[in-house]
Each structure stands twice: as C-alpha cells, then as structure tokens.
C-alpha cells in the first residue's frame, strides 16, 4: 500500500510537471511564394513536414518561454556584411528580401547575439532566407558565456555531417528553408551568447539571415 502511494505521488508529480510545460510561440510570417519548386541536392535532408504543416512545438517549463531577443540585442558577425545591417537579424521583420535581410559573404560565416547577461536558453529559431527552395549548408548553433567561443561551448544544433566547417561532425539533418524558420531546442543551457553558423546554401554561396529569436528566462 505504502509502495502504491509512493508511486501515485511520483506519478502525480510527473503529471503536474508535464502540465506546467508550455509551447514556445514563434511568430510565423506568411509563406513566400517561390513559383516553380526547385530541386535541391542533399544527401542529409530531413523529410519536409509538407505545405502548411509545421514541426512539433518546442515544450518548455512555464516561465521559460519569454523572448529574450529585442531590437536592441547586440549582433556581431564573422565578417562585414555584403548587404543589410546587423540589426535586421533582430528587428522582428521576417520578410525574406533585401530590405530586412543581413547578407554575409560566402564560406563559413557566423552571426552572434549578445543576450546582455547569462540566461537559461530554452529555444532558438533561425530564419535564413525562404525566398526560394533552398537548404543552408553546415548550420551550427552554439551557446556560451565566452564571447569568443573558446571555452564552455554547448552545441545545440549541428547538421555539418561531414565536418567541412571543422567544428565537429553533427548528427542533425539538413532542412529546407520555410516560413516557420528552424526552431531548435536550447536544452535549458545557461549562456550569454548565441552563435549561428552557416556555409552558404544550395542556391548561392552567400549566407543570408532574416531573423534569429532566442527564448528562455
Ligand atoms: Ca529581420
Ligand atoms: Ca558539411
């Protein structure tokens, strides 16, 4: 009887924990009409959820679903932009065109966000460019309290399956850019800085960033 009661208490605690979880609410822009579908070549592509269908929501404990990035978030980059301003990445405008998009040169590049202080990161969502059917190469998202990412680095996403970016081999899948961006589980990592890597896309060598949002507490 005692055993049964202990089990019930544990089960109730588990249920309460599950009930306390909330879905992160990303603001999804309308899909961009890209005309004729384009074939993309990738040997590591995840299955597309289908038009109008979105990925399963990221569930986090209540209170950890706050958007941490604002238009005042400081954005730095690996190299000077080809076009656009760093602020475009946090201006809440997700229109995939030159007026709202930061474009970095070709090769391995990164965009880094400073959250201002250490936070618990529950999710990161990245919108590159959904202007046509395309897949960005070697998408890697890392968190750290070190602005230089030399120590204490946690990788929360890495689809560089053949390690061409030399940051370690990743097991995540490549994905088609869509209007819902790419939500990534932050795994409740404590960090001040968020760094998002890419190495061009199947459409062009440059690296485009429309928006990056970080959630947590
Ligand atoms: Ca933007
Ligand atoms: Ca690669």
Structural overview:
This protein has 217 residues and is mostly beta strands. The chain has one domain (2-216): Galactose-binding domain-like (Jelly Rolls, Sandwich). Helices cover 8% and strands 32% of the residues. It contains one helix and eleven strands. The strands form three sheets. Strands 3, 4, 6, 7, 8, 9 and 11 form a seven-stranded antiparallel β-sheet that branches. A two-stranded antiparallel sheet has the order 1-2. The radius of gyration is 19 Å and the shape is globular. Residues 1-7 have low confidence and may be disordered. Bound molecules: calcium ion (2 copies). Residues 137-138, 160, 162, 164 line the site of one calcium ion.
Query: What is the C-level CATH assignment?
Result: Mainly Beta
What kind of assembly state do the chains in view correspond to?
single chain
- Using DSSP, what is the number of strands? 11
- Spatial separation of the terminal alpha carbons: 41 Å
- The figure for the number of domains is 1
Q: SSE order, as H and E?
A: HEEEEEEEEEEE
Map the helices and strands.
Layout: H1 2-19, E1 21-23, E2 59-61, E3 66-67, E4 74-77, E5 102-104, E6 109-127, E7 140-144, E8 154-158, E9 182-198, E10 207-209, E11 211-216
Antiparallel strand pairs: 1-2, 3-11, 4-6, 5-10, 6-9, 6-11, 7-8, 7-9
Bound molecules: calcium ion (2 copies).
Write a concise keyword list for the protein shown above:
disordered N terminus, 1 helix, mainly beta, binds calcium ion, 217 residues, two-stranded antiparallel sheet, seven-stranded antiparallel beta sheet
